[in-house]
Amino acid sequence: MAALSFTRVILAALAVSTSTLAMAQGAPPPADESTATDGDIVVTAQRREQSLLDVPLAVTALGGDTLADRGITNSAQLGDAVPNLQINSPYGDTQPNFSLRGIGVANEYNSNQASPVGVYLDDVYLAPRTSHGMGLFDLDRIEVLRGPQGTLFGRNTTGGAINFITKKPDLSGTNGYLQVGYANFDTFAAQGAAEATLAEDVAGLRLAVNYAKGDGQIKNVFPGGRDAASVDTLQGRASLRVKPTETLDIVLRAYAGRDRGTQAAVHGLQPFRTGLGFFETNENRIGENRTDAWGFSGNISLELSDTLSLTSITSYDGGKQNLQQAADGAPIDVLDINWRSSYRQFSQELRANYDGDGLTFVGGLFYGWDRNITDNTFNLPLPPAGGFFQHYRQVRKSYAVFGQADIDLADRLVLTLGARYTKDKSRYDDAFAYLFVGGVGDPQTPLATTVPCPGVAGTCPYDPDARFALADTNNALTGRVALSYTFDDGPLVYASYNRGYRAGAVNGGGYTSSSGIGYIEPERVNAYEIGIKGRAGGRLLTYAASAFYYDYSNQQLQDTRAGPVSFLVNAPSSEVYGFEVETTLRPVDGFRVDASLGWLHSKYKELTLQGADLSGNSLPFAPKLTAQLGFEWDVVDLAGGTITFAPNMAYSSRQYFSPFNEIDAPGTPQVNSELQQGANAKVNASLSWSNDALTIRAFANNIFERKTYGYGLDLRGAGFPYNFLVPSAPRTYGVSLRYSF
Questions:
Q1: What SS3 class is residue 4?
Q2: Most buried of 608, 686, 691, 700, CB within 10 angstroms?
């Protein structure tokens, strides 16, 4: 049946791509973005520079100006521009969870888990998910690789990879920009960059900064209470490029940033939602989402000959989070959590690139180390007031050797063979947790040790010296096999097999008992894909399409039960298949249409949780249909500049927030039908006037103010009288002024 379904998907995808001449892998960039000689955007999805239309992968590339035109200012908004990409979080824009083609962290909310969609900043893997909620500024482009990347991007990437690529000095002249803007909710934003050439063609320095501050987007009716979902961010980046010879290129980068916005709003305890609008809350403790991130990296490229080059990428990054979350949406203290973690990571990659007659090869070595120290406090409605304190340290190490070769079998026929061997070591130690008495923010008086304690919370006497530790090691061989052919008239077709892997993980949510803390099995996915991409009518139409089938095993899920007790478990078997289509059409000069469509079928072939058979249920955050449609129209030339109108629409069908979908576990108070978001479409638009130096832009996002949820979690099953639901942003609008030099 799976093979028959996949055949139908392939036929449907090819029918769509034929009838529409289908898919542009990312909108063609403005003139100031990295482009090939034929005008296509240049990407490094295969760790070497290629025109996007020459890459036999499903890749979406978005240039920095394209992001601005679509109103995308934060990584959490990328789902509006990439088919089959969903982004959600219980903390608003903080610690976003990326799901590609249905593969993500599902309902996992703990900070110690690695994202199955690898996130990279200038080819540096970012281990802490808190660092993924970044503001987007002074970017060259973003590359989104769909499907498991188990060869060249191999650390925990069962779902795909997202690479944020910043602008680097071009070693010629002086340039930059300054942009200021004002929006509703009294939001002021400013960003800018300045680049100076220190020595022509030899050395250059680029500095960039991003700032935004605004009131909460969700009104809090509690007397004197702060509004939820405010913005308060400051980020900076410095890039130094030195090219002492034609064969040696060194880029050093340093960045730092902090966020101090208020927490996301919560729709929780229903009696206190009486009389409230969708974008309102009644909460006595709106806390801050305080996050910090910083890092240093060095990218050294050395050309040994016309065919061989070496690259070294070294990085050291750190950060911390302090999320003060009132998880009840009520003016009383039902559930208040303080999520606190600090991070450090180091990575080193050595890579060789060879490009000779009939053979292109990329291979190398990778080492990564990251550490997470967590101190969480859970204030619960216990008599008397009290809760649990949790502490642990997690250290992970990853070693890998990898290589991929493109072999010319015949003229325009290429065979790709790639493999990666990975060894992952993880240790969870210095772990303890205890039950205490004391209100929110009050001193804690420990009553009983709960970790280590294999029994019911409160049954083990308090022992301040008690500690719990575990260790785990995983080995994996992953890789890629593909065959691609380029026709005389330009289209590229390909068929591929990829194997992806995500290392085993330990339950970061175990604090009421050590019986639920243990390592679970690694995720694995076997992915089969076919695709086509190219042009029609010269530059009239750019297109690409792909169809895929995944055999997915051991997805890592959070299972929350009364107590409250959290278990990290594996879903034994799942299947995912679907297709994607993207197009860019230029019928006349000054008018461009961008469209994309993603169709997805996902289901658990085998899964039982809490005595409920969930086989046949859809995976969380995996809507069947996503679509984007927009155009850019240069309406008229006026006063030495051009007026451009750029509306776009993003559609998503229904998606579930829980693997239970609408099923309730027997004997529980669950109401899982609440944990979903129905089909919805959101419309954004901008109107701008620009010349060579100046751009004045007015914008509006979610123009019709669609009321949607971005995240939901079962709390009824954990013993609370409500579910946890987070509303997405309301309508926002504003103006900006940008001066480029």
A1: helix
A2: 686
